[in-house]
Write a structure and sequence with these properties.
It holds the Pfam family Spo0M. By secondary structure, this protein is mainly beta. The protein contains two helices and 16 strands. It folds into two domains: 7-122, Immunoglobulin-like; 126-210, 2-Layer Sandwich (TATA-Binding Protein).
Length: 211
């Protein structure tokens, strides 16, 4: 908001999370050279793919209050991560081109509004991670991923006669995970169920080959 205005800094307890979990931490405000009226604090979970951004969740965490000059004010936060939040890290590494973060907007009466952006690392849920690990064990190689939760893989050598690349999609619901290969072969299981995903992926690939 310019020289002498308040500053905002959001501190997350742990910036590593998974879809369906919650982020906790605090929004730290530091008063500027004069008292100001804070109209509200808004936290927004945003995702970015290339130059495109989209909002996934929003939380207003405090109503109007006065922030004194030089005053330190801390507001606890808890932001739910929707199941549709895209995974940004696969096999422990960041997916190129994808990013998720928490944007904090401080709305100040009669002044420009300062903001803060904090990156978040979104890892796959256990069932999704198990599928991704099965793909790696079979010899598939990750090529790319997008915000729709579709992962592009180079196909393992034993399936080269079926396809050279394959799209792997996840539809994650409260209790169920649906796996979709190439947009046409699909299977779904309870997320807590133990599944031989290596066998399932192999079965789906053979099904695609027979279509």
């Amino acid at each position: 908001m310019g020289v002498g205005g308040p500053a905002v800094d959001t501190v997350l307890d742990n910036p590593v999370t998974r879809p369906g979990d919650a982020l906790s931490g605090a929004v730290c405000l530091i008063g500027g050279e004069r008292d100001v009226e804070i109209e509200r604090i808004v936290l927004t979970l945003v995702t970015r793919e290339g130059a495109s951004t989209a909002e996934l969740a929003k939380l207003e965490i405090e109503n109007r209050f006065r922030l004194g000059a030089g005053e330190l004010h801390e507001v606890p936060l808890r932001l739910q991560i929707p199941l549709r939040t895209p995974v940004t890290h696969v096999y422990g590494e960041r997916v190129p081109g994808l990013a998720v973060g928490v944007r904090t907007d401080l709305e100040v009466a009669f002044a420009a509004d300062p903001e803060d952006m904090d990156p978040v690392a979104v890892h796959p849920l256990p069932a999704e991670a198990a599928v991704l690990e099965a793909l790696r064990e079979l010899g598939f190689r990750l090529k790319s991923a997008d915000v729709s939760q579709t992962f592009e893989f180079w196909t393992a050598p034993q399936y080269q006669d079926i396809a050279t690349e394959i799209a792997v999609g996840f539809v994650t619901r409260a209790d169920e995970l649906e796996l979709v290969l190439d947009g046409r072969a699909r299977t779904h299981h309870d997320r807590r169920e133990h599944v031989d995903w290596t066998a399932e992926v192999d079965r789906l690939m053979r099904q695609i080959g027979h279509n």
